[in-house]
Amino acid sequence: MTENPSDEPTYLVVLNDEEQYSIWWADRRLPDGWRPEGTEGTKAECLARIDEVWTDLRPLSLRRRMAEAEQVG
Amino acid sequence: MTMHARRGGPAAEQDRTEQHLRSAHLAELVARQARLTPHAPAVLTAERAWSYQEIDDRADRLAARLRGQGAGPDTLVAVQLPRSVDLVVALLAVWRAGSAYLPMDPAHPEERRAWMLADTRARFLVTRSEPEPAVAEAVARTGATVIALDRTAEEAGGPVGDRQPNGPVPPVEDDHTAYAIYTSGSTGTPKAVLVTHAGIRNRVLWAVATHRLTADDRVLHKTPIGFDAAGWEIFAPLVSGGAVALAPVGAERDPAALLAAAAAHRATVLQVVPSVLRELVREPGWARLPDLRLLYCGGEPLDAGLCRRALERSGNPGLRIWNGYGPTECSVDVAAHPYDPAQTAGPVPIGRPVDGARLLVLDAEGALLPQGATGELWVGGTGVARGYLNRPGLTAERFVPDPYGPPGARLYRTGDLVRWRADGTLEYRGRTDHQVKVNGIRIEPGEIEAALVVHPLVRGAVVQALDLADGGRRLIGHVLTDDGRLPAGLREFLARRLPEGMVPGSLTALASFPLTPNGKVDRAALPLPGADQDDRPAFVAPRTPAEAAVAAAWQELLGRGPVSVHDDFFRLGGSSLLLTRLAGLLLSSSGRQVGLRELYLATTVEEQARLLAGARDDRPVRPVERGGPLPLSYGQRRLYFLDQLNPGGPEWVSPLLVELPHGIGPGTVQHVLDTLEARHESLRTRYGQSPDGPWQQVAEPGPVELAVVQVVQANATDAADATDRGELTRALGDRLAQGFDLARGPIWRALLIERPDEAPLLLLTIHHIAGDGWSAALLEQEIAELCAAAVTNRAARLPELGVGYADFASWQTELPADRELAGELDFWRRELGDQVELPMPTDRPRPAERDHRGAMVPFTIPAELAGRLVDLGRGRGATPFMTLLTGFAVLLARYSGEWDVSVGTPVAGRVRPEVEGVVGFFLNSLVVRSRLAAELSFEQAVDEVRRRSLAALAHQHLPFELLVEELQPERDLSRTPLYQVAFDLHDETLTSLGVRPEVAEAVQDAWQIAKTDLSLFMRRQPDGSFHGLLEYATGLYRRDTVERMAGQLLRLLESAAARPDTPLAQLELLPADEHERQLVTWNATRSEAAPDTVVDLFEARAADLPDAPAVLAGGAATSFADLDARANRIAHALRRRGVGADSVVGVLLDRGPDLIAAFLGVWKAGGAYVPLDPSHPDERLAGVLRDVRAAALIGTTAGTAVFDGPTVLLDRDARELAQQPGSRPERRTDPRGTAYVIFTSGSTGRPKGVEIEHRNLAHHVTWAARELAGRGTTGAPLFSSCAFDLVVPNLYAPLLAGQPVHLLPADLDLTRLGAELVAGAPYSFVKLTPSHLEILDRQLDDEQAASLAQVVVVAGEAFPADAANRWLARLGPGRLFNEYGPTECSVGTSLHPVDTGVQASVVPIGRPLPGLAMYVLDEALRPLPLGAIGELYVGGAGVGRGYTGQPAQTAQRFLPDPYGPPGARLYRTGDLVRQLPDGTVAFVGRRDGQIKIRGHRVEIGEIESVLGDHPAVHEAAVVADDSTGHTRLAAYLVPAAEQLPGDTELAAHCSRLLPAHMVPATFTALAALPLNANGKLDRAALRAPDAEPAERPSGVLEEGVAEVWAALVGAEPGRDEDFFRSGGNSLLALRLIADLQTEFEVDLPLRAIFDGPTVRQLAEAIELLIKAQIDALSDEELLADPTLSKEYDA
Question: pLDDT (tens digit, 9 = 90+) per residue, B193-212?
């Protein structure tokens, strides 16, 4: 009759204060210290988004300190 | 002509005849056949055969009459006749008159037929009965001539017209119309297709030629005449000299009748639509169709699986199946395809064009499409019809010029989507429009919609086809009315206008239709039927058993909630095809046969129940002759068999405890018992075994064994109560432990317990074979009556028993021949054929033979919760049984991780009213298999369990034992067959009368049996609560585990009742205290404050202890100061090459002091290192350096090929290095900076780099320095690759503790590992893999091993228990640890001290290291109950950064930690583990290391550890081999001594400890197991050996055994073939043993076949027995018995 909507769960792209990314179920409470990045979709879609945006795996605090050290140095 | 023909010879004559025949019309060909074989049968009916001459004569007479009244070419003659010889004659006559027929099925509504007459303006109406009013009116309006066949005249053989014997057929052109057939029209009006003589002739002659129809063929005509496919059923046999066999009216919708008709006429050809075939294959009776050679399908897509089933059912090797395709507009079929039995699934292609047809696949613009592209099918050629009668516009639209054909040719646009396959056949792909096929009928929903809106109250209508779960389809209609209510009588209104197949099964009224944004009706948003319909009559629940049976059957078939007795089958979505299954269900639930035709007419529950009540009761249980051995029922057979496995055991003792009236003494009790034994034969039945199988014999009644005990004086105090109960428990326990001898009896016993001041208790223990739960209730009632009668001195009033148990047994053994049982078996095969075993975790390993000992844990579902659950279920049509079973099934699924849950449940099994009062074993077991899923809501799960339970209950007729033999003939003594978990909700009416709770508790306490692994018994209490008992096998479960299960079930049910829409995976499972303990308490590990980085700590240590040795290698020492300076120089050199903060530097060096200096030097330069193993291939090393974007490489000139960036080469740059300052370069190491990147193998086959930060590393190394190195002062050895993070503590922990690292030579030969290690021993600690430990096992003596190190840490892979126990014995407690840690979590995650012997097969991985957290979670990241297998997630200080350059992979494995501090991450390990009751985590396997063999989940590790336990096996590895199509296991073994024992012994060893499916098929000896670079087993390097040909049995004994075996199984066995894997089952096993006993005259026990199920082993067992017999004989006896000695000597 009509194509079945996909049974695959929906995920969110999420990140913590260190700007470390992960994925989380869209319908579940997000653990504290994490916020949604804005992308919602299938697991593959969310992971593709992460591949796109998370270009530097270093935690934010480290990146900041290293940038400061560079300026000072 | 004759001369000419003669000259041309017979061949030419033949050719010309063929040519002539090809151009002759079908009527002419039939006439010719009548001249050739006038007396051959042409038409077969149930009553008689009609010859060609008879048919021909009658057709001629009717044709003459038609012609006489003006009929000629293109005259339309309506033929309104039921399927009969008249119909065949009339069609022939119409053609013979040169005219065209318009079939009018008398079963169609009168109004429709009247409309057809008016629409076609047919000139004639041939009919038999008086036309109905509407038809008569149409006749009057159109002026048609009615030709009524005069029945009496005809039957007398009289004239229907002037006889014109074989008269000439008037000139008829090929293009003249042969017939007009209506098809559904999308505009709402059906349209008549005009098919030409050439078209139908072409199709019929194609069939005759293709399927080689001859005079031997009998084609069943059953397709209603209104469908064009009916035509060839009639004419194909008549033009080829065969016979057309007429199925009775109505048979087309009654599969049983259809098969019966086909059988009665010995049909060779049968045409069916796939929908009907789907029903047909459920029917027994295929065996009666040995002549059937062609099954021709068409009308809708045909599934290969269905074809396969049909072929299987038929068993007829000559049967072919064809799939035909074609629209009415192209003369029945334009393409056809012979089904290839090699195709097992998917749609059968529609094949290649039939003769004369041209098929084009075109795109929307009419351009030809290439092979493989989907497009619309356009058809050209002979079959293309003239067009639609009186519809020129529509005709022009659908019949278009053929640009590719001869001039003037037309193509018909089918509207079907197809594509060419590579093999040149066509594949059907769907429709371009809304047209649907339901049960093979082509339907334009628009036509039905148009018929609906004719109703004055209907303002709009939408009709759709709904796909059903079973592959069928049904029509559903939605109508728009002002008030949203369904107009009364709408269905009847429709039924008057449309054929039955077009009336929607369900009609729903709405006040408005949901619309899509662009204003069209949103078809997808329309509510599905099943929602309450306003026009349903007031609900009346079923009132009688018959009504309940009908209602239950409807619920299953229609998949819906409670049905009212006034509901209408068709309105609730039923279809005529479903009626067949309804009849089948009613037959199996009631044993009564109701006719389909009757069911079709009686459409409400009430009416059908009335039919059922009055139905034929064909097979009552009747008394059979006593006096001799009688057969056993299936239930008895099974119990007898189980008893013989452990004769006289307590497993089958069932207790019954009755409180007797005060003052009843032993004398009365004895009388009561004797009366019962005399009354119930099963209580005095004896059992035996003969070559034909087990038998039973009813013995004479005798005095029943009665013992009397006095329980001591009990006061009404609690303490005394306890004593009382304790004594009771003891007395009960003694009795329950006492088994029975089935051969000699008695089969029941009684114990009278006299208690002062209290009513006496009577405990009966009965062998289960003699009674079931129902029997217990019967006995209880009869005891009460007998006691009452004795007290009042009156005659007891007991119901008369017409039959005994043995009568039932005889009745039941006749069942398999029964038609209904075949259907039952079909159902269960479908339901359980691919059943998966429920992998419930157990506390203890499963013994190879089931341990029947058990115990019970009681609990209660409080009334308030029970009430909410019962209401929840009731709202969805579920009984409390179903709702509670749902909760239990979810608990099992959450424990096991398997959502496909099979649970056994008992049913009374008293399927005949005659046996209601009989004591005996009637109990039957059903398996309810619920296919749940994590995302289903609890409500949906209730629906699923309800559906499955109803289906199971509706098929309870089949004895469980037959089901077991059918589905699981392979005996597995380690578990109960088909299910290992059971559920039973006891009926309130069956509660024990008046036994007080403490007495019931005493019984519970005394309970020592578990019938299966885990059973939940529930009983509703008067206050509304449910009392539950979880009975468990004590060999598998600990009591506290089962107690927790009870608490978890309650928690789960509470959660479900509170939020029934919660997905099953998210229902709360753990009570709050368990949740807290598992997630928080056990992870609250003490953690030190964040330390400095390792390099800072090293520098501090070097400053403290400059002269202490830091590295010892080859007898030379490097001091801390030297090492520090060397590292500083390397750092300066790196800085010069641009290495700075967060640069990654490759280190490619052999083991030596420089290696450590290089690592430290990288850190000192501010960078991170990636350790590279020089033994790895260059390509891999280069890839790693590319992946990490290395800034520099430290190596030697030997290794420069792998890198083209800056390098520090220790040999080349020695001078430069020497010139660098030995002082520390300026730097600040950030704790969050990268320390190293270590590559691990990735599941994708490409290694991935794990980035570890300094803080992660420091956390672990400071722990290791403190806890490992701190245990001594002598450092640690380094002897394996630094590319592997296992060695990280060996490198740094000694240095941080101020101790030396002992470097073993880089080219270390593992055969010298022990010697090299001993040379530097003792160490503070040694950390190594289990494989290394196994090597040391053989290289060190006990003393060397004991003095190797203070602490031995084993890590890197699963630590086998046997090795652990050996080393524990050598080291003593406190010195051996198993460490676990994925690289991603910085070396170490958990630790398990091996302080006591390990019982399990591998050592647990223990508890988290300080600062780390371990969670055992399910897929939804929820904590699992203790003991359940889940995935290990690691949180805390060790969690690393992620995978270099792989953000998505990192995000997938490093997840937000819901149980840790805000923002924390959790690493998903991929390891399957379980948590033990003390919080210790045990490793189970890899998520991907699991395999399935015959539905069993198998962990390879378990098999390996069993093999490793064999004294002759040093090491074992097992791999699964799928190369032969089925999974088999191959074992690879390293022998402990020189030689490996034979395969037979190894298999026997495994069989002792493992279930059969886990025993490897092959055993291969290896000198050593292949290890990969990291010292782990390399499974990929193990290859399965080829199977060897089976060895033949040899010697007299083996050949004798093989002969007996072959006679039973029907195939010659190989010498080592397993009986149960070769078709043997438990019943055959009993026979085999009995036959072997006879054959060899030995007392071979039944268990011999389980101990050794091969010919060789059986022969060995027999030989031993014979030897023993001979030893027992005196010499004289031996000499006197030459046969014996001869046999033995041979």
Answer: 999 999 999 999 999 999 99
Residue with tokens 């072929």: B311
Length of chain A measured in residues: 73
Span of B607-621, B844-858, B993-1007 with lowest mean pLDDT: B993-1007
* Contact between A1 and B1233 using a beta-carbon 8 Å cutoff: no
CB of B1389 within 8 A of CB of B1380? Answer: yes
The whole-angstrom distance between residue B23's C-alpha and the CA centroid of its chain comes to 56
The owner of tokens 């034909």 is B692
3-state secondary structure of B1639: helix
Distance CA B1411, CA B178 (A): 90
**pLDDT > 90: percent of chain B:** 41
In angstroms, rounded to a whole number, what is the distance separating the alpha carbons of residues B1153 and B1175?
A: 18
Residue A49 belongs to domain spanning: 11-72
Q: For residue range B361-397, list pLDDT tens digits in order.
A: 988 777 888 888 888 999 999 999 999 998 888 888 8
Q: In the beta sheet, which residues pair with residue B695?
A: B631, B688
For residue B358, what are the CA distances in angstroms to B333, B352, B361, B426?
12, 10, 10, 12
Instruction: Give the Cβ contact number of residue B1373 at 10 Å.
Output: 10
Domain assignment present for residue A66? The answer is yes
Separation between Cα atoms, residue B889 and residue B906, nearest integer Å: 16
User: Could you give the CA distance from residue B1109 to residue B1091 in angstroms, rounded to a whole number?
Assistant: 24
Question: How is residue B591 written in tokens?
Answer: 């044993």
How is residue B447 written in tokens? 């036509």
CB–CB contact A20 B524 (8 Å)? no
Give the separation between CA B860 and CA B1047, rounded to whole angstroms.
Answer: 10
Rounded to an integer, what distance in angstroms lies between the CA atom of residue B1364 and that of residue B1404? 11
Q: Which residues pair with B80 in a beta bridge?
A: B127
Tell me, yes or no, whether A16 lies in a domain: yes
- CATH number for position A66: 3.90.820.10
The structure tokens listed for B145 are: 């001539």
Asked whether residue A5 is domain-assigned, the answer is no
Mean pLDDT for all residues in chain B: 84
Contact B1447 A21 (CB under 8 A): yes
pLDDT value at B990 more than 50: no
Q: How far is B1460 from chain A (nearest CA, A)?
A: 9
Contact B1336, B1314 (CB under 8 A): yes
User: Out of B1251, B1444, B1451, whose CB is closest to A22?
Assistant: B1451
Instruction: Please state the domain count of chain A.
Output: 1
Provide the number of CB pairs (under 8 Å) joining chain A to chain B. Answer: 93
Single pTM value for the model: 0.61
B940 within 8 A of B931, measured Cβ to Cβ: no
Residue B706's pLDDT is what?
92
In the DSSP assignment, the letter for residue A70 is H
Q: Which residues of B touch A7 (CB under 8 A)?
A: 935
Residue among B126, B55, B88 nearest B235 (CA): B88
Q: Is residue A63 part of a domain?
A: yes
- Per-residue pLDDT tens digits for B624-664: 888 788 999 988 988 888 888 888 888 888 888 888 888 88
DSSP string, B179-233: EEEEE--TTSS-EEEEEEHHHHHHHHHHHHHHTT--TT-EEEE-S-TTSTTHHHH
Q: Which tokens hold the place of B1616?
A: 């080592």
The CA distance from B445 to B435, in Å, is 7
Distances, alpha carbon B550 to alpha carbons B557, B824, B926, B956, B1288, in Å: 11, 17, 20, 15, 72
Q: Convert the pLDDT of each residue in B30-46 to its tens digit.
A: 999 999 999 999 999 98
Contact A66 B1230 (CB under 8 A): yes
Q: Is B465 on the interface with A (CB under 8 A)?
A: yes
User: How many residues comprise chain B?
Assistant: 1690
Q: What distance lies between CA B1629 and its chain's CA centroid? A: 28
Question: Which of B496, B524, B492, B491 minimizes the C-alpha distance to B508?
Answer: B491
